[in-house]
Amino acid sequence: MSVAPAVSVVVPTHNRRDTVVSTVRELFAQHAVDLEIVVVDDGSTDGTSEALEALGDPRVRVVRHPRALGQSRARDAGVAAARAEWVAFLDDDDRWAPDKLRRQLDAAAAANADFVYCTAVTASVTGTVFDHLPAPDPDALRRLIRAYNVIPAGSSNVLVRADLLQRVGGFDPALTHLADWDVWIRLTEAGQAAVCPEPLVAYILHETNIHLDQSGLASEARHLRAKHARSSLPGQLDRAALDGWRGWAHQRRGSSLTAARFYLAAAVRSRRASYLPAVASALLEHLRVRRPKVRELVPPDWLARSPAR
User: Fold this and answer.
1) Which of 103, 119, 121, 163 has the CA that lies 20 to 30 A from 128?
2) How many CA atoms are closer than 13 Å to the CA of 79, on its beta-carbon side?
């Protein structure tokens, strides 16, 4: 009789065969944890399922959708197939420290927690680090999570008890950009959180990041706000912060004038002058007066030692 793994890692993917295979190979290096890797091939046409099966590793299970159903339904399909007590999510283009799961399990045990998150960094595909994204403590999480998505690195961060995830419900198929935030709000309401302050996740920036396509985001924000209108948690969705995030995404995609408009909207909504340097930077970039300087930070040791993809 086989023993259930400690953690099921759910990896949704669509037409990124080489990327997801590299990500799965890196998952094999997770230290001191018995895991299964549930890859949900969401309607790929590039041989993704066959490439994963060719790895020949019994820890890898592939759930295949004959047509693409979207990331929310893909993640839910992965959760339905998972066998472990704990579930973690990893986007197919992000990266983990090799002891990420072990540290999160230990933090959960120490705090008797139901879910765990950690600090993260943003990085290029070659491992250059641009930003350090600190994780709040659990008290701050409860104060802030309705206003901002304060758990960094999207869905690639959280480790959660499978029974709690089942109790609060899965990912909302009406949401794409904000689907992870919606789940984190529900987890925070219903469960006990713990945090690992170390940077254990790298959110990888590249030309096909989903956040670069901002279509539908305004309606998603309205849906999220209405959905949690009666939440027991304090606060409500901060539209200024969302405008600031939209400005960053538009600046990344080269739409500098649109970025300036969103930064300005954030400044007006929040009445905070801290957004004005971003407005000026985007306008100067639009006028081709200067290009923004790319700030490079010292990478975490585990990322510095990892080979570039």
Assistant:
1) 103
2) 23
Q: Give the number of other Cβ atoms within 10 Å of residue 191's Cβ.
A: 17
Going by pLDDT thresholds of 50, 70 and 90, the confidence category of residue 294 is: confident
Residue 118 in tokens: 């950690």
Kindly provide the b/e burial profile for residues 261-297, where b requires at least 16 CB atoms within 10 angstroms of the residue's own CB: bbbbbbbebbeeeebeebbebbbebbeeeeeeeeeee
Q: Which residue from 37, 40, 62 is spatially nearest to 52, judged by alpha carbons?
A: 62
Contacts of 295 (CB under 8 A, 6+ apart): 130, 131
The 10s digit of each residue's pLDDT in 85-109 is 999 999 999 999 999 999 999 999 9
d(CA 21, CA 290): 39
Give the H or E element holding residue 183. Answer: helix 179-190
Cα distance between residue 15 and residue 66, in whole Å? 12
Is 110 in contact with 191 (CB distance < 8 Å)? no
Q: Contact 28/11 with Cβ under 8 angstroms?
A: no
Using an 8 Å Cβ cutoff, are 306 and 127 in contact? Answer: yes
Residue 250 tokens read as: 């538009």
CA angle 59, 93, 85 (to 5 degrees): 40
Helix (H, G, I), strand (E, B) or coil at 19: helix
Residue 120, H or E segment = strand 115-123
Write down the pTM of the prediction. Answer: 0.95
Evaluate the CA torsion angle 6, 136, 248, 231 in order and state its sign: positive
**Could you tell me whether strands 129-133 and 86-89 are parallel, antiparallel, or unpaired per DSSP bridges?**
unpaired
Residues forming a β-bridge with 159: 88, 116
